[in-house]
Specification:
The chain is mostly beta strands. The chain is built from 4 helices and 15 strands. The strands form 2 sheets. Strands 1, 2, 3, 10, 12, 13, 14 and 15 form an 8-stranded antiparallel β-sheet that branches.
Amino acid sequence: MPDFTFNASALGAGGVIERGNVTYTIPSLGSVALAPTGGEGRTVVSNYFSEELSFSHAETRVFGRETSKDTFTTSSYVLIKNLRVLNKLAVGEMRAVVTSERGMTGGDDHAFEVEASYDDVRVGNRKVIPHIDVVLSQLRTYEQLGELLGGRNAARDPQGLAKRFNASSPDELARVIGQKKPVQGSLVETVEGYEPKPCAPTIFVPGLGTVRFAELMLKPGRRRLNLIRIMFGPRKNEHDRDQPFMMAEEGPQSGGPTGGSMTLGSGEGNGTPIEP
């Protein structure tokens, strides 16, 4: 008889921050992993505080079981409240859910759902609003991402979608998807809250670094959603210059981190049928 192995994990926060020759480690907080045989897991961390990071509540959950005959559901969930990072970035509440459903037969590109939400996001003293791409959030398979790049089911802005997935054009992204390679993009279409217009999901914050919202990693049989990923320090490449965050009240980069990275709110859920 074939068997099924579950794979799900969730993380509240973790990473490293570099200041010159000194490296500060943010331990993996609120992390939980699902047993390969399924079941449930839950972790809660309350009132965490350090000079670099604080939050009042981080909750993660994972779940996996056979929900109908030869159909297996795997899910991860993460919730973070009152988040602060180096007094530069604050989030009142953010939440993510990643769910997969898979049978014992069929290919690796099985059905999944991803959800992300943000409330009261502030950079410095300014409120910003990450806007979720409703069309992209309705993806159910890896292959459907390719369908958004052209044809009857094309997204409103295929060029912008390709750019969010680090491709120069829809055709380039379509070729990568056709080869079934991993892709990395964002569920957030724009970040509103500064002049002259909303920017892409990646913004540069002076004194902090490059902040990316709702980072989505996909390949057939696997998907992961990171609510926020920060690359600390100065701009890493010219692409960052396309999305500056205009903050007159912010000073220069001096005194801030010089390197490192951090993940805040991450979830993954999938599973694999195992033949004898």
